[in-house]
Amino acid sequence: MKIRDFSFDLPDELIAQYPPEERGTSNLMVLDPRTGTVSHKNMQDFPDLIDENTLVVFNNSKVRKARLFGFSEETGGKVEFFLLEKISGKAWKAMVSKAKRQKVGKKYNFPGSLNGRITEEGGTNIRTVEFDRDIDDDYLDEFAHIPLPPYIKREDELMDSSRYQSVFSEITGSVAAPTASLHFTEGLIHRIKATGADVAYVTLHVGLGTFAPVRTENLLDHEMHKEEFYVSDETAEKVESAVKKGKKILAVGTTSIRTLESAWQNGELKRGTQYTDLFIYPGYKFKIVNQIFTNFHTPESTLLVLVSAFAGKEFIERAYKEAVEKKYRFFSYGDAMFIKENR
């Protein structure tokens, strides 16, 4: 299985650079794998497509302002530190720009009278940076930037601080948004509950594992990075009850899918903090997720591979081709797809 088999042609003008003017108004493509049919709706139609026999599971992780710019004490050059993971009170793992120049021992000045130095190299562009004091989310909210993905060809703006978060984001820890959640408003969630459907929340902090490119020609040689997730007692009880009653488990976003599929063990949803490096590709047998709400994903990505595993590679290829023809908006700020149960 080759990663190039999951490629497609996408005109640049279809890559959404901004969210829709109003949240919850995006186009919605509806796929029915059992009949092979595709229909075209709007997000406002979504609550009408589900019923009381459904549990909708969201990821409530909140995006951290993770892009921090420092200036080299030696040259004065500007360097971007994309903060990936807090290692200790003062030390962070980060992706750095101009990586070949960022060596162990180099020192930097950051906004807010913060200083730091590189203490370790790890991987092509990964460094450990130790600051001279503990930095928290309050500091990052003031001085750092929203980590918009590289295919959004602009600097982050004030509105991104709210629009690149879901309305139910709660627990800070992601370095990229679980973007399927961005489509939902409080009004849409209220209408979902009004159908008799129930909702539940898991927390998976989006890291390199979700968005790291596949660099191996053979798909199965790709290794996922571990990502942290958390399942509460309340959510576990809701999921276990829904499965026992034969209800549909509708996962919003690939992060929710991977969380549920990783935590489901021996007929139960394992509680607490856990880690997953689950890679879902064609041939994978889904344990409990039987409906998916998702965005349109980048070519040759693990996310596109995942939805292809669920709905069928040929069906997804046809749907994406139709999306291009009908000028759907793609990627993080783009339109949405609802895939009904495949069995």
UniProtKB/TrEMBL annotation:
Q: Which HAMAP family match?
A: QueA (MF_00113)
Q: Primary place of residence?
A: cytoplasm
The GO terms describing molecular function are:
S-adenosylmethionine:tRNA ribosyltransferase-isomerase activity
- Protein name per UniProt: S-adenosylmethionine:tRNA ribosyltransferase-isomerase
Q: Which reaction does it catalyse?
A: 7-aminomethyl-7-carbaguanosine(34) in tRNA + S-adenosyl-L-methionine = epoxyqueuosine(34) in tRNA + adenine + L-methionine + 2 H(+)
- Return the NCBIfam families for the record: PRK00147.1, queA
Q: Which species is listed as the source?
A: Spirochaeta isovalerica
Q: Tell me the name of the encoding gene.
A: queA
Q: Where in or outside the cell?
A: Cytoplasm
| Self-association state and partner proteins as the record states | Monomer.
Q: Which domain of life is it from?
A: Bacteria
Q: Which GO terms describe its cellular component?
A: cytoplasm
- What Pfam family is a match, any one? Queuosine_synth
Family note: Belongs to the QueA family.
Entry EC number(s) = 2.4.99.17
Swiss-Prot/TrEMBL GO biological process terms: tRNA queuosine(34) biosynthetic process
Read off the InterPro entries from this record: QueA (IPR003699), QueA_dom1 (IPR042118), QueA_dom2 (IPR042119), QueA_sf (IPR036100)
Q: In which pathway does it act?
A: tRNA modification; tRNA-queuosine biosynthesis
Q: Which UniProt keywords apply?
A: Cytoplasm, Glycosyltransferase, Isomerase, Queuosine biosynthesis, S-adenosyl-L-methionine, Transferase
Described by its record, this protein's role is as follows: Transfers and isomerizes the ribose moiety from AdoMet to the 7-aminomethyl group of 7-deazaguanine (preQ1-tRNA) to give epoxyqueuosine (oQ-tRNA).
Q: What class of enzyme is it?
A: transferase
